[in-house]
Amino acid sequence: MRFETFVALRHMRSRKRSAFVSLITVISVLGVVVGVTALCVVLSVMSGFEEDLKAKILGTNAHLVVLKFGTDFVRSDEISATVRSTKGVSGASPFILNEGMISSETNLSGVLIKGILTGTAGSATDIASYMDTGELAFLDDPSKVPIRRGLGTPDDAAAPRPEPKIPGIIIGKELQKSLKVLPGDVINIFSPMGELGPTGPIPKTKTFKVVGIFYSGLYEYDAKFVYLSLREAQKFFAMGEAVTGIEARVKDVDRAREVAAAVKSALGGYPYRTKTWMEMNKNLFAAIKLEKIVMFIILTFIVLVASFNIVSALIMVVLERAKEIAIVKSMGATDRMVMRIFMTEGLVIGVVGTVLGLILGYALCLVTASYHFQLDPEVYYISTLPVKINPLEFLYVALAAVGISFIATIYPSFQAAKLRPVEGLRYE
Question: pLDDT, tens digit, for every residue of 357-373?
Fold first, then answer.
């Protein structure tokens, strides 16, 4: 053990230390503990929210989509097969996406209308697993769902009646609440992409029957997306055999860019282009990342406040140990050695507080994850508080806390090193 470390540890264990200085030291350690614990818990909860949000986005959206410059994206079956055969792709399906309006007897709303191929859509997204009521197959055979007029009652819904051949539609749970409809109810869809009349474009309208309700847990999707069968969407938007693009799922989401490049190469490049889930949700994840950075900076101020306690504790120690400093310097200790003694003492305070804070923060994260603290899913769209423990984030917190503690030792250590032996012994 080096001389400076030995003296610093002797200082901290000395029984001659005043109670006031010892109290300041304990407060300094507790301040670092509180700051580190808060940082660990908050960053873990925010990482949990980010992970949960990422899982829901990747479940609702494809990992990558293949688009084409122009409006003549035909031969979707052939292109889907090419995309599906590309290394790293686990599933692909054609889709159509357009804007429109939807109305019931009580309300109306703007929506994104998505046409899907029910047989392969489940291989590209998790929409099949998000079905709260009904099945994707009902889009191809809406007759399996009894027709209803308005809200009605369960008895009315079960009553046999002749029904016209109406195509099916699947809507989100939030949109269902807004429109106040149930499976079997009839709704109307409007599209501005209608035929050209004497006074301009005439909006197109068509009646659909609600055959299913999905719940993804994301308000934007549950309130805005509706699903039709691919063939019905092509007829409604007068697209013939064309589609908007091909959506695909990759085996490793973190390698989506590499797989997208391979897909584009397999299709021969232009006029085809690809977009990954990272590009499609770049702004959202950038905002979450920025929020985590801001929270880290704000909570670091707790450790910064604790560092002032370290400064005051070391200043008190320097004043109390003036005689000992003078004696050590008289025996040949250099200014640098004296400075290192007090820097080591302050660093020990910071390291002890950091280690205790990491242990306490880890324990609180485990408790939070184990006991599943309940949240209101109507407000937060998750039923329990999510926690994800990231060792790298804990390392960043530890480095920041120890770094701040070390910086706090510089000034009082420098003052101790400047003390002249004659001044320390003058009144002894």
Answer: 999 999 999 988 888 77
